[in-house]
Structures are given as structure tokens and as C-alpha cells.
Amino acid sequence: MIASAPASVTAILLAGARPIPDPLAVAAGVPVKPLAPVAGEPMINRPARALLDHAAIGQVIVLTQRADAFAADPATAWLGAHPRVRFERGGAGIASSLLALMEAGDLPFPLLLTTADHVLLDRAMLDQFIAEATGADIAVAMVERATLLARYPQSRRTWLKFRDGGWSGANIFWFGSDKARPVIALWQEVEQDRKKGWKILSAFGPLALIGALLRISTLRGGMARVGRRFGLVARLVAMAQPEACIDADKQADVDLIEAILAAR
């Protein structure tokens, strides 16, 4: 049984800059990727509006090293003026920045984390994710390969392969309580290898790695095993919408996203 959604979720919108110049930012002539235009406006605007328009979301924290760049751009200056939006300075990595905010004690749970390049994020995705993640200490949104390719066969993703299919991250994460802190600390250790599925799996123990390689483990079972290891409730949210794992990571993604938005 899925628990009812909490009255107020703290959303964290990642809008940082990588150490090396991002090709989309360079091509658009903007200082950070979230300011690069998609469908006529900076990509950060659509996920920011989706979060602010959802009844379960309380405050939205924009995590970035360049708050000044968003304030200076007329198309994103509204974020700094919004009463439910605040900017926090990001550090060298996502996990380290999260831990720093937690240490400051001004980060009320539950937390929903997503990215500024999640341009297709909408109410339906948030409805499903919040409903299924509520009650978990940590939850991760994923899209199964068949779900995506049935509608968008041209889309190229990084897949983690398990007995219950191939899975791609949907860039939506849930941290329901302070019990998630050890998992975030582990994330900090391996986030530089986030595109290397085997490295992430091995961090959760040899059984998870071997099980994935031999196709004897399901992703859902693996999540439950991670939860047991850390003494918490860990949950996979298998997203129904294939668009949930299409982010604006490269120009081909932007072209696809703009086609999807135009069709809507």
C-alpha cells in the first residue's frame, strides 16, 4: 500500500557547473548549462515551474556555484524573486553539497532532488514519484529500457542491466529521513564514476555486482538489499512515463525534447 503524499516536500534543483565547459553552454554562449535555451527559454525554467506548481512541494532550493548568472539573466531572474525559492552554493560534487546542507541543519525532510536539465519533468511524474517514494528513507526513479524504446527508439541512454530489464536513471531522488545520510556519503565516494554502472554496484557490495553481471538479481531486489545493508527502507520507483529519463544532456537530447514539447 502506498502512503499518502506528505504535505510539504523540500525540492533541491541541481543547477551547477561541471569543472570542464559544457558543450551546450558553450554553443549557447551562456556561463552555465542550465541557462542554455530549450524550446525558447533557459532549460531550468521548466523543471523549476513544475516543482513550484506541485501541491506537495514546499520550498525549492537551487544548488549552484553561479547564482549571479541566474540573477543577471532576465529570463531566470524570477527565480531569485520567488518567495519559495532560495539559492545555495554548490560544492565540488552533488553528494558533498547535500551533506553540507544537512550539516547546516536547514534542510527539512523529505527531500526530492532533481536536475535543471530535466526539462520534461511534469505533474504526472511528480505525482507518481512522490506517491511511491513516500515512506521510504531513500528512493530512486528509473525507467525500464522497454518503456523508453517503445516510444523513443532513437534515444540513447546508459543502461544498468538486471534480470528484470535494463534501467536508466530518471534524475529524481528521494531522501525521506536522516537515515539516508550514510548512503549519500557513499554516493560522495563514487559519484565521479556515476556513468560506470559496475563501479556504483560494487560500492554496494560484491553480491550486488556479481548478481548484476550474472543477471541473477533484479533491480528491485537490489534496492531492497541496499536498504537492509544500511538499515533503512530503499525503494525503486519504476516511472511509467518514458520521458522521465530524457534529459538535456547533449544536442540530440535537446532536439528530441523540443520535438516532444512541440507535439504537446
Automatic annotation (TrEMBL):
It holds the Pfam family NTP_transf_3. SUPFAM superfamilies: Nucleotide-diphospho-sugar transferases. Coiled coil: none annotated. Residues 33-144 form the MobA-like NTP transferase domain. One of its GO terms (molecular function) is nucleotidyltransferase activity. It comes from the Bacteria. Keywords: Magnesium, Nucleotidyltransferase, Transferase. Gene3D superfamilies: Spore Coat Polysaccharide Biosynthesis Protein SpsA, Chain A. This is GTP:adenosylcobinamide-phosphate guanylyltransferase. It comes from Sphingobium xenophagum. The lineage of its organism: Bacteria, Pseudomonadati, Pseudomonadota, Alphaproteobacteria, Sphingomonadales.
